[in-house]
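Consider the following assembly input.
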Amino acid sequence: MASPVSRRSLLHETRCQTCSLSSLCLPLALELEDMDHFEAIIRRRAPLKKGEPLFRQGDTFTSVYAVRSGSLKQTTTEGNGSDQLTNFYLPSELVGLDGIDEERYPGSVVALETTTVCEIPFDRLDSLSEELPELRTQLYRSMSKELRDDRRMMRLLSRKTADQRLASFLLTLSERFRRRGYSPYSFRLSMARADIGNYLGLAVETVSRILSRFQGQEVVAVSGREVNILDMQRLTRLAEEEELGATR
Amino acid sequence: MASPVSRRSLLHETRCQTCSLSSLCLPLALELEDMDHFEAIIRRRAPLKKGEPLFRQGDTFTSVYAVRSGSLKQTTTEGNGSDQLTNFYLPSELVGLDGIDEERYPGSVVALETTTVCEIPFDRLDSLSEELPELRTQLYRSMSKELRDDRRMMRLLSRKTADQRLASFLLTLSERFRRRGYSPYSFRLSMARADIGNYLGLAVETVSRILSRFQGQEVVAVSGREVNILDMQRLTRLAEEEELGATR
DNA sequence: CGTGAAGTTGAATCACATCAAGACACGTGG
DNA sequence: CCACGTGTCTTGATGTGATTCAACTTCACG
């Protein structure tokens, strides 16, 4: 199987100090020494395969998870069956914060591709946050940021047209990739069209149609799940205002 | 102006220990002694008049606020002008948590009626949360709960019909009043129809029409801003499933 | 009382959903 | 390597719930 070297590097990867995400992740503001303490509470998890759940709706809340590689989606199912996709998670983002309150996870989180995460038991994180003010601040910030993002999402869902939603969605992804050191112009969607539609409150068909139209207008080039943003400025305009002219 | 007695009782009111909301509010889990410490950091604020802002979008973040009486709305304005109402706040609820991250408030918060709040400077709250684990836990929970509520709102905005939105809205209010010791059946809306519409992602006219219809179906009785829930069960059904039969 | 804001109601329009059918991509077993 | 089947995606035709526009009514407040 794995050679000693690759095993070693795998182990190595689970160290925050050498993790390429450390500048975005929870231990962001910690001194080297404090980071050791933080690392001590983190648990490794076997990589999740595509479609495999990290946890399920209703499971008792024990840990939050930092995404290391790959991506996940969060969905909540209501009595009547239909479920709502409430979030996508990319590397360095924190999963499960909405479970603290009721001590169970309010939604299921499932891997969209092969995904690795760091498990951070919450009780230990909480007590460590007592000693490390920077860690506490960072935790407050993570939650606060998620609140802010949620507000933006509400605006999107209640005021924006389908075109604006798709444009915003692509821009948000682009920006998230950029921050992580990847190209903001060219990336791969790890989620299906149906997921995008569910997330944005649109029918799959609408997602497909609008992507085709954007492609026709040479704003993006889409091939399957590969996306190329051709005209970032135009896409930005599409996201905020309703396009005034017709083809131009 | 105020008699010594009323001034005294006003002062009295600002003590958590005698506040009727203490079982719902932030110091919920604190011992008497710890509550003294908590109270020491709270600042009184002059009551806000209807329409008066608690803070404005973009103001630097300094404090979170606990609503003591009255109610407020939070709105965020985007470049193009149109603004989105993202939340209503009732007594015991915590305002401003989404400002921690960027150190400025991402939206304006305005009183819907005469409203009093407790100002809690965040830096002091943060350091106090170092010493008082229960306070810290409660703060994490408040934020977590708000995240959870946001998810529910997203579901409402992206999957529910106008009827379901209105029904859900009324039920949520009803439940919040109930938890605060008021009648869940009979209450007064402090917000205008336009606010409700904005919040729920509906046109004012739609809100009005549907309330009229609910009234015709004898699910609720609405007179101006006074609401009476006549058939709670039916309203609950309306909120989750699409009504199957027509009039029945 | 009068005046402007807030709320209601009706009719026409539109953006998106739904229904339906076909194209494509991909993994699996022959 | 191909045939097959299944799931994902695209495209077109039609239907509909909510918006928009417009007019009217009611309410709150000086």
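The helical segments of chain B are 4-13, 32-41, 122-131, 133-159, 162-179, 193-200, 204-216, 232-240. Ask yourself how this observation constrains the way the partners meet.
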